[in-house]
Amino acid sequence: MMRIFLPTLVAIWAVHAFAFVTPPYPVFLQASPTVLRTASQGATLDQHLMDLAQKFKLEIFDLDEGLFGFDSKDNRYGLEVVHTNIDVGNDGLGLVLTEMAGSPDGRGLVMVSKITGNAAKANPQAIHVGDTITGVMANDGVLKERVTAFNYDKTVEAIGRAKESSTDGTITLELNRLIKRLPVRVEIDDGSGHVQVIEALAGENLRRMFMRKQLKLYDERTRRFDQPFNTGNCGGDGVCGTCLVNVLQGMDLLNPKDSHEVFITKGRPPSWRASCRTTVGFNNVGGTLRISLHPQSELPEELSPGVKSLKP
Ligand code: FES
């Protein structure tokens, strides 16, 4: 099982946002034709499931291409992506799916409402009530279908196709799961004994956190990495290198550096991070992060080529 934690703001580039589940929302229960257990055999529309359904919202990335993604309407929750293998033997998957919301154009929010049989036997922790299926793979190396926001019928049909194509008797499901974001305490040490504390939630971008708190992140006199004769920041695009911080504690709470950040921190101490490329509480890990700002202003120029402070 592979897990990837996605922060709430993962879909900020969405072209349109469509509030998908707004109470009172429609609830449709439909019987499974072949693969799945029927909803009438024990789906439980308990309050927990209803609460989760109301937290999902649908982001439309590209309407023409039919590209959708789920996100959380509740900032206290983030989305985790889980991949899991399930035996699709004679007893079927052992899942009850319930369409918690639907739209006239065939989109829906289909959630796991009960886990029995093969799904429960294979790995009880792999699938949770409240998960929604966003991808189906046949394990034949060929058939992969994205089923994000498919309605009940289309989801079941895709699972049926994967089952038909499976060569080893199993299929892989990609699931979106809402999980509560863990708290991260961010301590900003100014080096003179004063520490400012920000209470954050796992998955937040470090630079956006500074913006939210209206903290002075950039050293105005710092020379840009990409434009050596200019100052000023790039607005979080990961090309200027003026948003650096020094991590004093809690490096294990942060995401690995991407290629942009590797480039702009090349030759700098490994504890330096570009805040615009840094996620606190990566993979929903909570804890304490301690940092200092403007590390480039503390180094002599010869030790800090490229990104260097113009501080006298
Ligand atoms: S703001 Fe430019 S690299 Fe971070």
TrEMBL record:
Organism: Phaeodactylum tricornutum (strain CCAP 1055/1)
Name of the molecule in the record: PDZ domain-containing protein
UniProt lineage: Eukaryota, Sar, Stramenopiles, Ochrophyta, Bacillariophyta
Gene3D superfamilies associated with the record: 3.10.20.30
Keyword Phosphoprotein in record: no
Single GO molecular function: 2 iron, 2 sulfur cluster binding
InterPro entries recorded: 2Fe-2S_ferredoxin-like_sf, 2Fe-2S_ferredoxin-type, Beta-grasp_dom_sf
The keyword Cell division is annotated on this UniProt entry: no
Signal peptide coordinates: 1-17
Keywords: 2Fe-2S, Iron, Iron-sulfur, Metal-binding, Signal
